[in-house]
Structure formats: structure tokens, C-alpha cells
Amino acid sequence: MNIVRRRDLVRGLGLGAAASLVGPFVRGIVREARGQSAARKNLVVHLTGNGFTVKRHMPVVRSETDFDLPPSLSALEPWKKNLTLITPLLHQVSPGLHGNGWSTLSCVPILGTVDSDRDIPRPGGQSIDRAIAQVVGKGDPFPSINLALYSKTLYGGALDIPHASCDGPNKEFPPDWNPVTAFDKIFAQPARAMGLSAQELLDRDRSVLDLVRGDIARLQPRLAGSERAKLDQMLDSLRGLEMQLAQRQKGASCQDNQRPTAVVKLQPEIIPEAAEGLVDVAAHAIACGMTRVVALSLHGHGGPDNPWPFLNIKNPHLSSHDGDNAALTRLEQYEFGRVAQLLQRLAAFRNGSGTLADQTTVMCLNAGGGEHHNGFDRHPVVLVGNAGGALRSGRAVILPPKAYAPADVFCAVATAVGAPMSTFGVPALCKGPLPGLLA
Amino acid sequence: MLIRRHVLVACVLAQTACVGQIPGNAQDQPPAPGDAQAPGAAQTPAATTPAAAPPSAQAPAANASILPRGFGAPRIWKLTATQYAATTRALLGAAGDVGDALAGAPGSGTEFSNGSDGLQMSPPQVEQLWSLAADLASRAARSPGALAACLAARLDDRACVASFVSDFVGRAFRRPLAPAERDAYLAFWDREVAARGAAAALEQLLRGVFMSPHFLYRTELGAEGAAGARVALTVPERAAALSYFLSDGPPDAELSRAANEGRLATAADLEAQARRLLSAPPTAQGLLRFFTEHLRADAIKTLTKDAKAFPTFTPQLADEMARETSRFIENVLWSGDGRLGTLFTAQFSTVSKGLATLYGATAPPMDFARVALPAGQRTGLLTQASFLAREASATDSDAVKRGLFLRKTFLCSPPPPPPPNVNAVPPPPDGATTQRERLGRHDQDPTCAGCHSLIDPLGLPLEMYDAVGRYRTKDAGKPIDARGAIVGTPASDGPVADTVELGARLAASPDARACLARKLFRYAQGRTERDDDAGWLQDFTRAFDQSGGDVRALAVALTTSDSFTTRAAGRTP
Asked: CB-based contact (8 Å) between A269 and chain B?
């Protein structure tokens, strides 16, 4: 059975004060969490898909601060006072059809076209999670991490990967879909396994890196333009890798023997295990101070014809086309339930007078829409958390139609979490931080 | 009406852009000096290139001299996941088996997994390769004697190490090492031995090799310091280009020997090696991969169907559907005539017992043996379940999906995407109307009709097959009308009575041959064609035509062309 031993991974998490009783892994995390500055602000960008409709997403609003959450968001009820629901937003760079693709988080047009047999869409710019990570995550082992359940491993086609995180034109930042490998990447401690100190291991790694950089240096003068850029990208990636390797000790101190032991072969039947495993990895990474920016997506933005059997959904994509709101509500309730799961995990870690959940803002938005998944001019964004008071929360903000864009919300959120931003994406389509959102 | 006119114009533009004709007035203009050339004028000898062949009926001779023939840019080309795996296996044997460690690696983001520009070295990809290099090095270093016989006795024998570096690292880099490179690796060895001992030094060196850009990328740069507007690939670069295209792996022993002995200098040399590699499936895995990716055959493995309606559609059967297609192509290419036409018209296939039941055929004596299919019901790739079941919904056939796939894949003539704010999903089955009746709405809606008149007639003959590819005669209780047509092509238009006739029409279609030549060019070169590739494409199509549509002959033509072995200095991709 290819089942994630998620329960091993999460043992003790979510037990609140009892967590310190259950094992060295959790004790390690709690220690790290306590060691964090209370001013540290974390951001999780959570992406759903398959479009959105007024029926599913609109709250019942009596006043800005007196509103009922729509059924899709019912799992977030405990966090309602820290929640801000903003709608409708106009995503003017939507490329059409089955989703906003790389434009969702980058707010610039994609490169290439959708639904072509020869010109697959590619990122046109940097996504907001990576832009924020570049500023606030500089000193972290991982400036940001990208966890997305759906990948080509399950669906076989490039179009089915959640097109979310990217570092610039043509530079995708691909997700990890397997909780086990994501865990290993973030918390691996090969030094101990090899009987070496972390410093000895780092010395070995650096020696190899120097050899590789020497080869790159000999090859690079022979290349020009985009060919040279390929090696530039490799050098950049090696630099990032070296930084991660140097910080490895920090990850090692956060885990013991609780690594999930089985390899996931992603099948529809184990979606819940894998999805919940990814959420737990995200919680651990934040709790251990391995990163403060996470992109999280539990299904693609369109296209896949695969079922979610445990929710009795045959095909989320067609459910969207067919207007099967009951099915999509079940799906979204599950997805926002994962947001609740994440916040519950983080709430288990006290930090100063609060918990890690208090320091974390989750920005939820939909990657669908395009031009025929129920419109691209009615995007809702849901913020859970207020970035330590930097955002005005507990509100349903109903905007004038087509007046503001997701990029305006991004600017405000970026500013609130420590990466001040006056514009994002296409400057002409961004008005700056959404008025009234920053405290 | 305005919308319809725009859609029609777009459809026409899309077609003309993809059927081997040159956009704009390129046909009327000579190639730009220094940017393109007449056939046979490259630096590399090309006595037997297809360009020299007489023109075909579909490609008038008058065009041959004026269509441009440009060259791609010098480049580095990252190994794909399968090429990486084949390369480490070739270098390390069993210790080089990477399993599915690269299964989640980012693809090229292009039509084929080997699209050169899309293969990245993003941070996650480098992390993955870093881990894999460490794993491979650790495994390989446990058996030094398997790397070089002399290392088995003494790891501190520097002469042995020097020989190992020249040989092993050279094979990993697919070329002889330059003296400076060899010195750099030996200096690294010395430092590592001093710091950590010989055993660790060997592992460290292997890690470095597997992370080196010279291993992870193959080069198409020509000789260092070569001058001139055009750059001929070096002999090792030619060997690698040939083997990674045709075999999806590094040069085998015979190809390496030919390269070392100077037997890869001419087009005739390349042709001999290409024919050898294409003579059997084990050394032609690249051509098979082309078809697998081109036909998206493996995608069926991850699909599911409505369990109540199709209880026999299991993951095992889905896997067998994918295998049928690859085994069928193998059978036609290496046990049959190798012709594209046969791929469209074969009344046989290579099926499992489960698929034989699905098709109503006699069960084969062993899985994937060749069997005859029920007469009049099946016609090559068009009626294989890997296609029919994939291009369908979980519960029903889908004539639009199927028609669209045929148009894009076999005619290179994709219509533009639906206009904004159109619900592109056909009405669901209602049990009372046939799919043909439901799609009839496209004719009545001008925003749909422009493109659907190109798509639906291709898909409707396939209504004789349900959502898992079973033959049927009724839809919603009514007899199926399987008539259809090929519409909007330069040379293949015409009505068809059913799928078998559609297969025959595609088999005879010059557009289908030109399309396959175009697609295989993209795969062979790892890039999309440009306007100045028009002359080459015409050459390849002509060679393909003249061979009677033999796919292997097309592959040979691609490898012996100057476009395969020459790059334009100073050009950027």
C-alpha cells in the first residue's frame, strides 16, 4: 500500500499543551517556535480552482463587520474575527478559458497561449509569494516553499500542474506534491546518518559545488543570450542550494525519527492522506522557522478529469462547467478545512503571549475564472489572519465592480507582512495597496 | 456575424500556419543572405540529404529552391528525465538505476518532453539532481572495480585514477576531456584524498561529475574557437544528437566507436548509424518515445471511468491500453512495413486478453501478441482504446475531444480556442438524444459553427465507440450515423462514411504526412520550427512521401540533414 504515514508525521501536532508530552519531534518544534521572534510574520498563499460563483462564495452581508460566511468557508468560522473577505476583484490579465494560470499570482500576462498544441503557457513574471519571500525570507533556509497536491505525476500533462509560484518570465517554481519528499527536503539530516558533523558535511558539499562551478565557468564564455541564461539559472539555483545546505542544522534540530516511511504513489484514493500530509509539512516548516512563506494548492485550476472519490465528486472540472454547486461546495469545504487544519496545527505552538497561528496570515484565492469559468471579474480573496494587527480584519469588504484587482490586495498583504509594495504585476492595472485594508 | 467572421479567419490562419505552407509571402522571397541558404550549401557534406531528392507530387519542384533553410542557434540541451536515467544506467549499470526519482521533475512545458528552451535548472530541480547525484555516487563508489578495473586493487594509484578520470568522466561528458578539464578533476581528486581519504574522494568526484553541466547538458556548440557564420557540430556532438534523438540515451558502443574512428563525418556516415539504431526497438527508444508523447498514449493510465457504467475499466486495463499503442507501433515499425498509412489502417493490433474482450477479438495466445480485429470495426490508431477512452468523459464518448485531438495531432491544424464567455462543454447525455443531435447545436450558433465545422465531422465517425472504446451501433437507443468529413485542409478534404474510411483518408493524406514530418522535426530538434525551417520541412516531407510514408525513412532524413548537424553562429534561439 502506498499510503503516507501521515499519522506518524502529525503525531502530537494539534494537541496543544499536551504536545510536549508526545515525542522529541514535537518538543523540537515547540522549542524552535518559542525561539522565534514574536514579530515574525508568516504568509500562506492558498489556491483553489475551478472558478467561483456568487452562490458559493458570497457571504450574507448585513454590514461590513456583520456577515455570515458562505457554506464553502464554513470551516473557517472559528477564525471569523480575524478573517477578511474581499470581493469582487477584477483579474484583468486572465488569459482565458480554464483559469488564470501563471497570471493568478503574478498578475502579468502569461507567455505562450492556453490550449495550444505548440505553445504551452509559461510564467510571464514573478508570483507574489516569491516576491514577498525575496524580501522577508532572505535569511531563512527556504525563502518560500511550494506545496501542491496535483502534479503531472497524477495527471500527465503540463497544463494540469497548478500554475502558481514562479520567479520570473519562463521561471517556474515547481511544487512538491509528495509529503514525504517535501519533508525530507526540508528536514533531512544526512550528516547524522553519515556519522559526520553538519560542518563536515557542509565542507564536503561546498567542495563539490566548487568543482561544479568551475565547470560552469569554463562553459559559460562559449554561450550567449538565452543559452547563457540557462547556466545563470543553474548558478543561481546552486547558490540557493548552498544556502539551504548551510542552514541544514536548523532543520535537523526540528525532527527526529518521525519521517513518513512510505513513498506516495499519488492516486485519487489517497488524496486526503497526501493533502493533509502536505498541510502538516507546511505547519512544520513554519513552526521550525525553515520558511515563512508557503504556497499551497490542493488541486489544479482546471482540466483534470480525475475524481475525488472520498467526496463523491467524479470530475471537479465538469462540476464547474455544469454548475454543480453542491459538489464544488463539498470540495471547497474540504479545501478550506485544510486551511483550518493548518491554523490548528500552528495554534498548538505558543510563542510569547500568542501562538504561531497569530503570526500567520493565510491568503486564499481562486486560480480558476478565466473567461468561462464563471467570470474573471468577480474574484474573491479571503484573508485569514491579520499579520499581527497590520491588516484590518473581521470584515466583509464589498468593492465596487471592476474597481480593484487582486494585485491591489497583494500589495497590501505584502506590506503587512514586511515586504512593502506600492505596485505589483502590470503597473497600469494596479492601484497600490487596497484602500482600507492596512490598519 | 462579426464574431463568426473573426473565428473563421482565425481558423483559416491556424490551418495555413500548420500544414507546411509558409506564412506571409515567404514563398515568393529568396532567403536572406547569411540567414538561410539553398539546399546542400552548408559546411558539412550532405551528398545524400533529402534536399537532393526529386520533388514529390505534393511539393512542386519550383518551390524547392526558394524556400528558406536556416539553422538553429548553438545551444546547450538539458537531458530529459528519461535521458538522464538511460545515461546513468549506461555509465553505472545497475548502480545507475534512478527508479522513479525524477518522476516529478518539471517537464519542458512544451509539446514534447525534450523541448530545449523549456528544460530548466530551477532551484527545486537542482535540489533534486543534487540528491540524486549523491545517491548515485554513494552507490557507485561502493564498487570501485566496476568503475575502472584498476581501482579495485588500489584507490591510491594515481595513474589508475588519471586513466579513470579520462575514461569515465569523458564518457559521462560524451566527449574526450580537454587537458584543462582533466587537470581540474585530478586536482580535485588530490585535494579530496588529502582532506578525506581516497574512498571519500571517489564518491566526491562522482558527485561532481553527476552535477556537472557537461553531464546534465549536451552541447551543440561546434569546435571551440571555430570561426564562420555556420558551426558544424563536433563528432561527439553528432553522436550524442543522433543517439538522444533515436535511442533516448547516450551513444552505444558501436556509435562511440564510429565517432572515435572518424566515421561520423558525412551524411552517409550518419545515415548508416541512424539506420542501425532504427533497426530494432532497443536502440530506437527515442522514436518510440516520440510516438508515446505525440499520441499522449500514457495519459490513459491515470484516468478513471464511471465504475457503474464501465466496471471492466480498471487501472490494469488502462495500463494495457497504453501498452497496446506502444506495442502496436513497435509491431508496425519493426515487424511490419513501418508506414504511417498502416498506423491509420491496420486491421490488427497487439492486445492483452482484456483488450481482446473489449474489442470483440479472439484472445491472443499471450498478452500483446498480434491479433486480427473484427472486420470493418477497427482501423489502426484511430480505434485504439488509449485514444478513444482518453478523449472521452467518464461516462460518455466525446466527439469534440476526439475530433480536436485528430485535428491537432494528425493534421497539425488546431482551431483557435473557443471565444470568451462560451460554455465549451457540450450538453450532457440525456438518454434521449444522440451526441450527433446534441452537437447539432453548434451548427445553429454562429459563434460555435466556425470552428466546430472543422472539429465535429472528424469526431462524429468515432461515435461508433463508447467512452472506453467499445464498438457500438446505437447511441441513446438510436442507430449511429457515423458519417463525417475532413474539412479545411489543403489536400485531404472529403466526406467519409465511417471511421474505417476516415482511417483510409488519413492514410492517404499528404497533410498527415507533412504533419508527422513537422512533429518529428520538433522532437528531433527540441524546438518549434521557424519560418526559415520551411525548406527543411519540405525536404523531410518529400523524403517521407518518396519512401511511401515509412516513418523510419523520415527519421533518417531528419538526421542526415544539414539542419541536424549545423548551427548558425551568432544566432540566438
From this structure: no
Rg (C-alpha) for chain B, rounded Å, is 26
Alpha helices in B331-420, H assignment, sequence order: 340-345, 353-359, 385-388, 399-410
pTM of the model: 0.74
Please choose, from the candidates A178, A276, A184, A262, the residue with its C-alpha nearest in 3D space to the C-alpha of residue A3. Answer: A262
Pair type for strands A293-297 and A171-172: unpaired
Interface of A with B in 162-191 (CB under 8 A): 167, 170-174, 176-178, 181, 185, 190
DSSP B232: E
**Helices B235-246 and B285-295, interaxial angle, to 10°?**
50
- Partners of residue A303 in chain B, C-beta under 8 Å: none
Q: Which amino acid is at B20?
A: G
State the Cα–Cα distance between residues A94 and A351, nearest whole angstrom: 40
Residues of B (466-525) whose Cβ lies below 8 Å from A: 522
User: What does DSSP say about strands B484-486 and B494-496: parallel, antiparallel, or unpaired?
Assistant: antiparallel
Q: Look up residue B33 and give its three cell numbers.
A: 543572405
Distances (CA, A) of B373 to B185, B361, B363, B364, B481: 59, 5, 10, 11, 22
Q: Which residues contact B2 (CB under 8 A, 6 or more apart)?
A: none
Beta strands in B357-434 (DSSP E): 369-372
> CB–CB of B108/B118 below 8 Å?
yes
Give the residue from chain B lying closest to A152, CA to CA: B104
Is the reported ipTM for this assembly greater than 0.90?
no
| Element housing B53 (H / E) | none
Beta bridge partners of A122: A111
Reported as half-sphere exposure (CB side, CA atoms, 13 A), residue B42 has a value of: 33
Within 168-187 of B, beta carbons closer than 8 Å to A belong to: 180-181, 184-185
Contact B222, B571 (CB under 8 A): no
pLDDT tens-digit series, residues A191-219 = 556 777 778 888 999 999 999 999 999 99
* CA–CA separation, B428 and B497 (whole Å): 26
CA angle B163, B167, B172 (to 5 degrees): 140
Q: How far apart are CA B424 and CA B71, in angstroms?
A: 40
The answer to whether residues A169 and A121 touch, using CB atoms and an 8 Å cutoff, is no
CA dihedral B463, B469, B471, B473 (to 10 degrees): -30
User: How far is the C-alpha of A108 from the C-alpha of A110, rounded, in Å?
Assistant: 6
Q: Which cell numbers in the block locate residue A71?
A: 457554506
Determine, for residues A237 and B121 on separate chains, whether the beta-carbon distance falls below 8 Å: yes
Three-state DSSP class for A295?
strand
- Report the Cα–Cα distance between both ends of chain B, in Å, rounded: 40
> What are the DSSP calls for A219-269, one per residue?
HGGG--HHHHHHHHHHHHHHHHHHHHHHTHHHHHTT-SS----SPP---GG
Our measurement of the distance from residue A168's CA atom to the centroid of its chain's CA atoms, rounded to an integer in Å, reads: 17
Cell triple for B156 = 591510491
Walking along chain B (573 residues) 10 residues at a time, the average pLDDT comes out as: 33 30 27 34 31 33 71 96 96 91 71 89 87 94 95 90 97 96 97 96 98 98 87 96 98 96 94 97 97 90 80 91 97 97 97 96 94 96 97 90 95 81 66 89 83 94 97 95 96 96 97 98 96 96 97 98 92 57
Q: Quickly tell me which residue has 461508433 as its cell.
A: B464
∠ at Cα A124 (A123, A128), nearest 5°?
80
Which cell numbers in the block locate residue B246? Answer: 533515436
- Cα–Cα distance between B455 and B8 in angstroms, integer? 13
Give the residue from B213, B533, B559, B240 showing the smallest Cα distance to A222.
Answer: B213
A129 grid coordinates? 509569494
Q: Count of residues for chain A?
A: 439
**Contacts of the segment B298-304: beta carbons below 8 A, 24+ positions apart:** B298/A156, B298/B322, B299/A156, B299/A157, B299/B390, B300/B385, B300/B386, B300/B389, B300/B390, B301/A156, B302/A154, B302/A155, B302/A156, B302/A306, B303/A305, B303/A306, B303/B389, B303/B390, B304/A268, B304/A306, B304/A307, B304/B394
**Number of neighbours of residue A156 by Cβ within 10 angstroms:** 18
